[in-house]
């Protein structure tokens, strides 16, 4: 099992081109199942989750190959509509293959997915919506067996109780080739939903309203292949900005998606660092110790503060001047990284969905274990701020979402090795 060994205390400075978004790549790769002809995806990040999605595609008979950051997927010959339990368990996002497979073949068998340990992550909204679209769903021995009786799902009016990203994606994927019109009320507005819809439109789908709460999809019987560039990863962007800000450094990020990162940038700015943006660039300078964030940081669906950036900003605020308060409103169990910060000398109190962080002048190195993807990335930030050396184990979590993080940190002048 690989580990990261980090010696903290250096001021990080540098320039980096952001990788493509993981959370866009996965549903877009699933969406390629719906297309007749080659789908060429540029800016596809080299991540274990992306390779897990490619294995799912290959296992059902698609041809999926990579050259650098370009993936080419051909789904002309589907040989199976069943995704093995082993593949489903590799990542939670595998559940979006359910909607895509239904859209393609009118049936699928999947199992309850695996993924990050962020507390219970039910799929009740996904299943209820697909049932509303006429899909017959049976659960048997850990398998979910879905079938659209006429071979094609039917358009429906669906109102989500919560704007779930995954449920919105599954409905879109099933609806683009369904019979008739589907309306999703209270749809998720995350930029990655717009990226998925942008890709599907390039393949001939009829979708409007993405980025707003009401999405309308008119089913088309056939989609074609296309060439598409995946949007930059706004969470990786938030991670490197938090990292460099915490070490009082300076950073230029290129290939950034500035408007989509705004909900994070507006909070980071309150720590006193200077942030300048231009069309696809973000420049950050943080010459002195960060200030605590005065207003409570509440994670909310987009355009609120993203839950995926909670841990990485918290790591930076562990060494800020003053007290910051987080309120986690999306997931029940998303403070598991705080034990590692405390082990490094941070002062954090967690009570239910609230975490109170009293900034300390210094952290110290410690040996810790990554608990989940963003929590693990946050531990890297804490270790880079700490005096002395730290070891982070279970870095397979970090590799799910960051392309060679140690190389980026090395470019910034940090001391981080994979052993
Ligand atoms: C996606 C992102 C993840 C991000 C999250 C919230 C991907 C691959 N993952 O996850 O990085 O943290 O959005 O922005 O894009 N819920 C239910 N029932 C359901 C579905 C969801 O109760 O049927 C609950 C979940 O348990 C959670 C909340 O809704 O508490 C939000 O989940 P959702 O928006 O679905 O997140 P994901 O799509 O899993």
From TrEMBL:
Pathway: Cell wall biogenesis; peptidoglycan biosynthesis. Gene3D superfamilies: Enolpyruvate transferase domain. The keyword Magnesium does not apply. Keywords: Cell cycle, Cell division, Cell shape, Cell wall biogenesis/degradation, Cytoplasm, Peptidoglycan synthesis, Pyruvate, Transferase. Phosphoenolpyruvate binds at residues 22-23. Its main location: cytoplasm. The modification 2-(S-cysteinyl)pyruvic acid O-phosphothioketal is found at residue 116. This is UDP-N-acetylglucosamine 1-carboxyvinyltransferase. Cell wall formation. Adds enolpyruvyl to UDP-N-acetylglucosamine. The keyword Nucleotidyltransferase does not apply. Residues 7-407 form the Enolpyruvate transferase domain. UDP-N-acetyl-alpha-D-glucosamine binds at residues 92, 308, 330. GO terms for molecular function: UDP-N-acetylglucosamine 1-carboxyvinyltransferase activity. It is an enzyme of class 2 (transferase). The active site is at residue 116. Belongs to the EPSP synthase family. MurA subfamily. It is found in: Cytoplasm. One of its GO terms (cellular component) is cytoplasm. Its EC number is 2.5.1.7. PANTHER family: UDP-N-ACETYLGLUCOSAMINE 1-CARBOXYVINYLTRANSFERASE. It catalyses: phosphoenolpyruvate + UDP-N-acetyl-alpha-D-glucosamine = UDP-N-acetyl-3-O-(1-carboxyvinyl)-alpha-D-glucosamine + phosphate. GO terms for biological process: cell division; cell wall organization; peptidoglycan biosynthetic process; regulation of cell shape; UDP-N-acetylgalactosamine biosynthetic process.
């Amino acid at each position: 099992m690989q580990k990261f060994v980090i010696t903290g205390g250096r001021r990080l400075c540098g320039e980096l081109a952001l990788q493509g978004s993981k959370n866009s790549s996965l549903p877009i790769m699933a969406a390629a199942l719906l297309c007749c002809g080659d789908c060429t995806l540029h800016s596809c990040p080299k991540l274990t989750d992306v390779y897990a999605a490619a294995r799912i595609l290959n296992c059902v008979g698609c041809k999926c190959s990579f050259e650098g950051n370009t993936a080419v997927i051909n789904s002309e010959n589907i040989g199976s509509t069943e995704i093995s339990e082993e593949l489903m368990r590799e990542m939670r996002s595998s559940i979006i293959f359910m909607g895509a497979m239904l859209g393609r073949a009118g049936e699928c068998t999947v199992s309850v997915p695996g993924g990050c340990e962020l507390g219970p992550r039910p799929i009740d909204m996904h299943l209820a919506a697909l049932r509303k679209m006429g899909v017959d769903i049976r659960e048997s021995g850990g398998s979910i067996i879905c079938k659209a009786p006429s071979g094609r799902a039917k358009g429906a009016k669906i109102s989500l109780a919560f704007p779930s990203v995954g449920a919105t994606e599954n409905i879109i994927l099933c609806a683009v080739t369904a019979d008739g019109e589907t309306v999703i009320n209270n749809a998720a507005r995350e930029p990655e939903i717009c990226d998925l819809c942008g890709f599907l439109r390039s393949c001939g789908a009829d979708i409007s309203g993405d980025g707003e709460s009401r999405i309308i999809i008119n089913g088309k019987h056939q989609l074609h292949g296309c060439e598409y560039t995946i949007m930059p990863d706004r969470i990786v962007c938030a991670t490197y900005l938090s990292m460099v800000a915490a070490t009082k450094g300076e950073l230029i990020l290129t290939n950034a998606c500035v408007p989509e990162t705004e909900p994070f940038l507006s909070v980071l700015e309150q720590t006193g660092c200077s942030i300048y943006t231009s069309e696809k660039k973000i420049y950050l300078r943080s010459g002195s110790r960060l200030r605590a964030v005065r207003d409570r940081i509440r994670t909310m669906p987009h355009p609120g503060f993203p839950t995926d950036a909670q841990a990485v900003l918290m790591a930076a605020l562990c060494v800020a001047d003053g007290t910051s308060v987080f309120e986690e409103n999306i997931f029940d169990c998303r403070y598991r990284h705080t034990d590692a910060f405390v082990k490094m000398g941070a002062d954090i109190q967690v009570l239910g969905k609230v975490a109170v962080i009293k900034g300390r002048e210094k952290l110290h190195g410690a040996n810790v274990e990554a608990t989940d993807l963003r929590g693990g990335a946050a531990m890297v930030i804490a270790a880079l701020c700490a005096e002395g050396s730290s070891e982070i184990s279970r870095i397979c979590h970090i590799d799910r979402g960051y392309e060679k993080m140690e190389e980026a940190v090395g470019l910034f002048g940090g001391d981080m090795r994979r052993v």
